[in-house]
Design goal:
The complex is a heterotetramer, with two copies of chain A (344 residues) and two copies of chain B (384 residues).
Chain A lengths: L2 H18 L9 H7 L8 H9 L18 H13 L6 H11 L5 H5 L4 E4 L14 E6 L6 E6 L2 E6 L3 E7 L5 E7 L11 H33 L1 E2 L2 E2 L4 H29 L4 H30 L10 H11 L6 H17 L1
Parallel strand pairs in A: 1-3
Antiparallel strand pairs in A: 2-6, 3-4, 5-6, 7-8
Helix pairs in contact in A: 1-4, 4-7, 4-8, 5-7, 7-8, 7-9, 7-10, 8-9, 9-10, 9-11
Chain B lengths: L11 H15 L13 H13 L18 H14 L7 H13 L2 H13 L4 E4 L15 E5 L2 E12 L6 E7 L10 E7 L5 E7 L5 E14 L3 E2 L5 H7 L3 H6 L3 H17 L5 H30 L8 H22 L17 H8 L9 H11 L6
Parallel strand pairs in B: 1-4
Antiparallel strand pairs in B: 2-3, 3-7, 4-5, 5-8, 6-7
Classes of the chains: A mainly alpha (344), B alpha+beta (384).
């Protein structure tokens, strides 16, 4: 890795994050996040429009197709920042829809005038996308206008009225949908489907990383100021040691996400990609739930109230930690890959 | 109220049958197996049925309207009610205040308050915790000053479980600021409709109003609404923490959760997965071991032996075990783990509900950290 | 359980332990234990003779067969005390040989004039005893005169010269043998084989409990006196909390062992026995290794020296934690029993 | 000593090939892949070969007889030597004392000691720890008093790794008792054949003499055998703890252990057991994540950026991960876990050897507890 390249992605990521500040301010906007909960789709279409204007949905569309052609490192950096702010809007699904559609990405979806999401998952607990007619765990579907749907038949772009939504409210106040749809007339070939799924898994891990990072910060702030027995509780060694355990996991997750993103950006083989996505997601999911458990415990009684902001992070972690595979699914996937590694 | 048989003279098996028949026959048309606490309006029918049959205060002496059960019989009663899935009533009066009044109350207090607990006319809340004090219960700042023949109370209490359902509250208040923490605290009884009492609900992580804060602004109560003597409230309050600790450590929460875990695993197609089973049997062993440890304390209760500080081990292990079970549930539930409502509208299948309901168990009733501090010193004899 | 019965086993256990003090003093005899290591069979035949004189090998021989007919609670109490003293002699194997042989237990073995042990295990990691011709993990075999061997063909009592020993030195300085032998002429039927294996598993768990108990005590003593940064290290909250974790496991193990022993003594069915033995051994094995890890860490540099007594406990735990099934074998067994429970 | 090429001018790939060829060509007939440290008599041939080729002190500047490698190249060298299974030499001179003398030593000291490290004439031991002081390195009680032109040393050092192989030792000694802990400490060089120096071996849990205690009884050394100034030994000693911390956290120990774990699992018939695999891949992910974190620090070294206190996270995670791998080994090894000798006389299959060798990693070089204390304050900014 030459120094020039390092600089380039870092600078790109800085610019993307800076522009994303319009929708996810550095000091967070948890009041807005709180208000958006349990209200319609659980997110604000106007914010999606703004994200479109900022060009976020073009990140993974190639330059030849009119996009920005940015890498997974930049995408992960953005995802991390979105996670820090608990952004409820389906920005990452829209980016992944762009990655799938490339030159077929509709102008309105690029600009955010229409909300686009994507759908891939075949069955509960499955990491497969080859089935057709029904897709599960579609993020941001309530409130979406367009659906990029991948299956073994190819990639279809469906309007809202071509899909039947089955929506379920999630703990964070959003909705997760399963969709069903009739086989569409036009399907594009989509050789990148598996690769986009791995990218999405990685980006989702980065979102969980950001969430965990901010949840730890909030918890550390609380440990510094909250007193018990006339001492700040953060001075108690047992809590200190447990806090360092979270910190270690967090830094492992960060390192693994960005090293994996670098491998993805610089042409990793299929096995490396498959392993990388599963491993990074495994760590991030466990991190998010680890932080959640400890954040509640360290906040004490405050931790189990809905009014404390830390609860927003916990409920988001619970809602999203298992998307793109719960830990047991990911470990089973890695166990399969053990033999592929052997054969290779 | 009916004439009650001598329950303690019955064999355990006979009493178990009686308790089972009782709940099956008398349980009203209200929810069973609820993972969260029911509010008074929902659980009141059950309270009143228990009251009517003289079963509302199992541990009180018979001459005061209780069932006079031994610890062993009481445990059987709890087991049978839980097996049936009977809702937990607002039981702070029967479980907390009643025994305290029986031990420390004046005859007048007993005569005034016990019958109204029995009848359900008084629904009590507990006012121990204060904002910012957490597990440091002795850090009481809520203040009571004697003004003629009345206490004038100013301050705040919080984490009053189901406090919004209560019409009376007992509190710890500071009545002497010149002495060291525990020494200047008194135990007072306060009607919640007294002028100057206001409340604010607190929603828990499940977004249900489970707790409330209670504010006292120049609230006046008669001088004799004090239990256990002026500045002796701490002793009275502490004395209550004995037997309950055993029951908090019972394996029931965890074993019921294992049943739900199995159903969630069956639904997710994980029940026959050897990896899942490996974890399931480890948790099952933990539950069984906890059951055996629990029984050693039940034996002590049965034999009338004193319960030592080591009983905290039960609570620590039970609460963390319950949490670990809930964590495996979440993992097995997959994408459904994130849903706000139960799959198939069946609360038993709702991993998140168990996960959330398991959180307070390591925080309330003495946090795990405080309990470990205490065990290290009192039981392991480690230095300060 | 009537009060009278409780009293009886407690009193019996007290008497047995009191007499066993001759070979395993209350203050320990770790110097002797240390000296016996890596020397011949790793134990002292004279101590076995003494144990025989004390009648220990008659514990599980029925009264009608001239034994003491004591229960598993008494046996576990004895085993716990042996574990506390790290007794290297194969007292428990000799007791189990007596339990198998009953009226066929030779006089010389009863009295300890001849050292007897037993053999059951068919294969590495197996909990089966039905095979014949070769048995593994035979305790105390080097130095034994007689072998009670169970197989699907029944129970054989073999003299030393009828078996071929394949001995391997163990970490604690003893030896663990596999034996091979020709099919003997005389075999007794042995309907109790499975039940004795479960009893032995339980008693071995109690030995590990005793070992763990004493290892924790020694570690707590060290935490109380050892200073660092001018404070006893036992005053550090993080070590305090970790010490309470061991204590909780220890008390769970104790409760599970004695409750299971009570069930065994009062007629548990086959499934309860099988589950009980596996569960109790699982806890005890994990406890012993948990204590070992923490004892070393809490002793700091002293913990990794051979001269510190705590090392004797650690090496014994390493040598014996997996006998009668390593944790993974036991969990697999419990998983099998899950279905039997279902069927029942 | 040969003329050395300019290693840093080579591409990483070329240097890697060179290093691989070097070890394959020159490694003497001594053990490879040893889990425990070899003693001087066993490892000396390798030391002398390295010395002869000018490869014994990779990080020293070329003008002082080193290879002058950058951190990146040094890492490649370590990787290739470890891949081959080359034994670790007695490297306290090359790794610890040499860099310290280069930074703080006088010209006379450099001229006297550096060549003898390079040649293997001096084998050094480290005398930091004292009995009862543990991780509190500043609690130095060993004392040195200036008497004319000699220091007179009295006291004791312990946990001197392979100290029995050394003929020289450097120590921290208290030279001023009137100031606060760190301020009155000096760094002294002592020949171990000086009158009054005695040693006692300490066997580790594997019953191998890995450490020794060193006793100083009126030991006299010249006044100029002090490095970094009187009472300034602490600064010098601390300054050394930078780069090493990165290498201690390298994933190599753990990834080599994973290879052994696989072999043990294959032998035990567990390799295809889904339950085993579930744990194996979790550990494998941990190793891979550690590798990625390690690389971020290697990048810093490569770029010449400073390494912060947060590098302790590497050591904490690596050492605990190595232990967890060893614990799964023990479980999978079944009855064989308890054997004193390797199954099939193959050390790679010896679970207990890994388990035991993994224990000191969380104790020495700053215990995990001390590191966590430090991280909580320095990195998480938690209060004291």
């Amino acid at each position: 890795m030459a120094d020039g390249l390092v600089e380039e992605w870092v600078e790109n990521a800085r610019m993307i994050v800076e522009s994303a500040r319009a929708i996810v301010p550095a000091d967070g906007a948890l009041d807005r996040v709180r208000k958006a909960r349990f209200d319609g789709p659980g997110y604000d279409r106007a914010v999606m429009a703004e994200a479109g204007e900022l060009g976020l949905f073009l990140m993974r569309v190639g330059e030849e197709a009119g996009g920005l052609g940015l890498g997974m490192r930049e995408t992960c950096e953005l995802a991390r920042v979105l996670g820090r702010g608990l952004l409820p809007e389906p920005v990452l699904p829209a980016i992944m829809a762009g990655a799938l559609l490339q030159e077929h990405m509709p102008e309105a979806a690029m600009k955010g005038d229409q909300v686009i999401t994507w759908a891939w998952q075949d069955a509960p607990g499955a990491l497969t996308w080859q089935g057709a007619g029904r897709k599960l765990a579609v993020q941001g579907a309530t409130g979406a206008d367009l659906f990029a749907v991948v299956s073994g038949d190819g990639l279809a772009l469906l309007p809202r009225d071509a899909v039947t939504l089955n929506a379920a409210e999630t703990l964070d106040g959003g909705q997760l949908c399963s969709i069903s749809y009739a086989a569409p007339d036009a399907q594009h070939p989509c050789p990148a489907a598996q690769s986009v799924l791995e990218d999405a898994t990685l980006a989702h891990s980065a979102y969980l990383l950001g969430l965990s990072e901010r949840a730890l910060e909030i918890t550390l702030d609380y440990l510094r100021v909250r007193k018990q027995f006339d001492r700040p509780i953060g001075s108690f060694q047992s809590l200190q040691h447990r806090a360092t355990e979270i910190k270690v996991s967090l830094e492992l997750s960060r390192a693994a996400i960005f090293a994996t993103a670098r491998r993805f950006d610089t042409g990793a083989d299929a096995l490396t990609r498959a392993r990388g996505a599963a491993r990074v997601k495994l760590r991030a999911a466990e991190l998010a739930m680890h932080v959640s458990r400890e954040a509640i415990q360290m906040h004490g009684a405050m931790g189990i109230t809905d009014e404390a902001d830390i609860g927003l992070f916990v409920r988001k972690a619970m809602a999203e930690a298992n998307l793109f595979g719960a830990p047991r699914v990911l470990r089973a996937r890695l166990a399969e890959l053990l033999d592929e590694g052997e054969a290779a | 109220m009916k004439d009650l048989p001598d329950f303690n003279a019955m064999s355990d098996a006979d009493f178990r049958t009686l308790a089972r028949d009782f709940v099956e026959t008398n349980y009203p048309d209200i929810p069973r197996y609820s993972l969260s606490r029911l509010h008074w309006e929902d659980v009141k029918p059950w309270y009143l049925v228990l009251s009517e049959h003289g079963w509302i205060c199992p541990t009180w002496p018979r001459q005061h309207g209780g069932m006079g059960l031994t610890a062993g019989k009481h445990l059987i009663l709890i087991e049978e009610f839980e097996r049936f899935g009977a809702a937990r009533v607002n039981d702070i009066g029967p479980v907390m205040l009643g025994p305290l009044l029986l031990k420390y109350g004046t005859e007048a207090q007993k005569a005034e308050f016990l019958p109204k607990i029995l009848s359900g006319e008084h629904v009590w809340a507990q006012g121990y915790s204060e904002p910012g004090a957490g597990s440091d219960l002795a850090a009481v700042r809520c203040e009571a000053v004697l003004d003629g023949d009345e206490w004038v109370i100013n301050g705040q209490k919080t984490w009053c479980t189901l406090g919004m359902d209560a019409n009376w509250i007992f509190i710890l208040a500071r009545t002497d600021k010149t002495v060291k923490k525990q020494a200047g605290i008194s135990f007072l009884l306060v009607p919640m409709d007294a002028p100057g009492v206001t409340t604010r609900n607190i929603e828990n992580l499940e977004r249900e109003a489970e707790f409330c804060e209670v504010f006292f602004d120049d609230v006046r109560v008669p001088a004799d609404y004090i239990v256990g003597g002026v500045n002796e409230g701490w002793t009275a309050a502490k004395a209550l923490l004995g037997h309950e600790r055993v029951f908090i450590g019972a394996p029931r929460l965890s074993s019921a959760a294992m049943t739900r875990l199995k159903r969630i695993a069956l639904r997710a197609g994980a029940w026959h997965d050897p990896v899942f089973r490996d974890r399931y049997v480890a948790l099952q062993s933990d539950v069984a071991d906890l059951g055996d440890l629990f029984e050693t304390y039940v034996d002590m209760l049965r034999d009338g032996r004193p319960i030592g500080a080591d009983v905290a081990m039960l609570k620590i292990f039970q609460s963390e075990l319950y949490q670990r079970i809930s964590e495996l549930m979440m993992e097995v539930a997959g994408e459904d783990a994130g849903l706000a409502q139960p799959p198939e509208a069946d609360r038993q299948l709702h991993a998140a509900a168990t996960w959330l309901s398991a959180r307070p168990t390591t925080i309330f009733g003495g946090s795990t950290e405080i309990m470990r501090n205490m065990l290290a010193k009192a039981i392991l004899d480690l230095p300060s």
